[in-house]
Amino acid sequence: MKQRVQPRTLFVCLSLLCLLAVWLSLALGPVSLPLFDTLRAGLRLLGLPISADGLQQAEMILGQIRLPRTLLGLAVGAVLALSGVAMQGLFRNPLADPGLVGVSAGAAMGAAVAIVGGAWFGGMPDAFAPYLLSFCAFVGGLGVTALVYRLGRRDGQTNVATMLLAGVAMTALGGAAVGLFSYLADDATLRTLTFWNLGSLNGASYQRLWPLLLVAAGVALWLPRRAKALNALLLGESEARHLGVDVERLKRELVFCTALGVGAAVAAAGLIGFIGLVVPHLVRLLAGPDHRVVLPASLLAGGVLMLFADLAARLLLAPAELPIGIVTAFIGAPFFLLLLIRGRS
Amino acid sequence: MRRPVAVLGLFASLVLSTQALAAQLPQRWVSAGGALSEWITALGGEARLVGVDTTSQHPASLKSLPSVGYQRQLSAEGILSLRPDVLVGTDEMGPPPVLAQIRTAGVQVELFSSKAELAAVDANLKHLGQLLGAEAQASALSADYHQQLDALQGKVRQAQAGQKAPGVLLLVGHAGAKPLIAGQGTAGDWLLRQAGGRNLAEHQGYKNFSNEALAALDADVVVVSDRALADDQALQALLKENPALAASRAVREKRLVSLDPTLLVGGLGPRLPATLQSLAGTFYPAAQASFAQ
User: Fold this and answer.
1) B172, B241: one domain
2) Are B168 and B220 in contact (CB under 8 A)?
3) How many separate domains does chain B show?
4) Does A321 sit within 8 Å of B78, measured CB to CB?
5) Residues B129 and B171 in one domain
6) Are the Cβ atoms of B205 and A186 closer than 8 angstroms?
7) CB contact B293 to A (< 8 Å)
8) C-alpha distance from residue B204 to each of A123, A187, A239 (Å)
9) Has residue A2 been placed in a domain?
10) Residue B171: beta bridge partners?
11) Which domain range does residue B73 map to?
12) Is the pLDDT of residue B7 over 80?
């Protein structure tokens, strides 16, 4: 039996890492602020009465740019990682990824409709236009997932294998739809679509943040309550049923949480790959398969990884910026391979 | 004894007043638009640029400035780190939330038109002239631009008396593979028409064509704009990747020309008239001498 990290040690380490990531994410950026200014501006944002002398710039950068960005990164990372755990639990397969139930494909399709179609319809009310993309991505993700879930159901039973295949088919269909829209798109919209597909935390603002934070809080509070049921499901569906778990309800909840969480994350930050696949896997390698540990640990680890990836995205090419989807894949994939190789030996 | 002092005083007050005037104009500029950066340089404002985007490729000296990334994917903090007074860009610049953040930080954000039309050039030049304090220069450039294009139109009409307008295609490709064809409403289409060509592509925007459809259009002249290779290499690569083209009239008669792809991005720039002249020369070989002037 391989040496495992004690859950308590893991949580302490992850919490410390999380604090470090948040601090770095607030303190570092292309604009170099003196450490003392960052501290004072941070305390002012927390509502402490500190004089604003010479702090305008620091406060603006911290409050309007870095803080919303940090919160967005934490929420997106946490939700994607949790959804990854939910999907790997549902399919009882460590290679499952939130995209399997079609939520990413659906969101991409929604985004393509919004980006390309928005240019055609034109006359959108000004108040709604900035949210059209997020809204369509969210609805697309939710809609396609609902369809995949519906296709997997027969006689009141959800067949996971059928659902998986339906997800693969819907993903292919979504890809085709995105392809069709990119064919119809003009130059400008095509580029917007390409960059959206790579994801970014750039331009985070509080208005766009609230819906995601609400969803993230909901998913983060709900899923860990089902940790025992997920553990039972690991043994197999009928075994879980005999242990008194309402398996149908559990599946429904898992799919719903994933659709909601990934839908909201994608709507806020575009498609960001690899977090949902790598983080749960990593946590399981470190701490074993108990969902009572895996769920909260993945939540923390997802946020941490996302913030570090975002730091790289904004600092490496400063003053320009890398799409974060590229960074998560570049950090995530080699790390994942390393763990695989070490795990085998 | 008194006169030199008075002259000195007059001189000093002149210097001071111009300085006071200049102080109100933005001194540190970030430009996120290829054609805009070229115009700023043409108006003598290159020294004020502290950052440019990836589409600003001309003049080559701009490449040594910090790059703020692609014009549609700007980063608020990245731009703020350059401490600019003004950010200029076309309507393609974005994303909008980032522009809002930059405005909140007190940086002036000025938008320009990226449309391929003369009115846009005039308006952009006027606006840039005001921001740079070079209004006279801007209107001179504007008038010169009109004059050059008008002269070109005159020559094209003359040439058309001896030869009917050739059917042309503009292929935009990457190292020759799978070229996109410039259809109606693109900057490429405007370019072809200005140089007196008849764009054979009737679709909107840039689209892929099959080899066979390409051969069927049988253009008189093919213009190639390649993002990876230059001039002759681009033409060779195109013929190698699309063998069906070799049988077309344009290739048989060796009427294949290459075009700098940076001319097609972000509105009309100052290098266009010269390019149009040489393009028109290829379209009307009999009148080539008149375009060379």
Assistant:
1) yes
2) yes
3) 2
4) yes
5) no
6) yes
7) no
8) 21, 10, 60
9) no
10) B181, B224
11) 27-140
12) no
Q: Give me the CATH number covering residue B169.
A: 3.40.50.1980
Look at A317-326, B87-96, B156-165, B239-248 and tell me which has the smallest mean pLDDT. Answer: B239-248
Q: Please check whether residue A144 is in contact with residue A170, taking contact to mean a CB–CB distance below 8 angstroms.
A: yes
Residue B154 lies in a domain: no
Tell me if A39 is assigned to some domain.
Answer: yes
pLDDT in tens, A199-242: 888 878 888 899 999 999 999 999 999 999 999 999 999 999 99
Report helix, strand or coil for B221. Answer: strand
Structure tokens, B39:
């115009």
Which one of A32, A60, A62, A65 would you mutate to disrupt binding with B, by most B Cβ within 10 Å of its Cβ? Answer: A65
The answer to whether residues B129 and B198 belong to one domain is no
Counting the structural domains of chain A, the total is: 1
Domain of residue A276, CATH code? 1.10.3470.10
Give A61 to chain B, closest Cα distance, Å: 7
The count of CB pairs under 8 A between chains A and B is: 93
- Same domain membership, residue B181 and residue B279: yes
State the smallest CA–CA distance between residue B107 and chain A in angstroms: 12
Integer Cα distance of B220 and B206 in angstroms: 20
pLDDT of residue B2: 56
Comparing CB atoms, the residue among A31, A183, A208 nearest residue B77 is: A31
Mean pLDDT of B232-257: 80
DSSP string, A232-285: HHHT-HHHHHHTT--HHHHHHHHHHHHHHHHHHHHHHH----SHHHHHHHHHHH
Q: Give the per-residue pLDDT at B20.
A: 47
- The C-alpha of B286 sits at a distance from chain A's nearest C-alpha, in angstroms, of 36
Q: Which amino acid is at A301?
A: A
- Any domain includes B287: yes
Q: Identify whether residues B170 and B260 lie together within a single domain.
A: yes
- Both B193 and B252 in one domain: the answer is yes
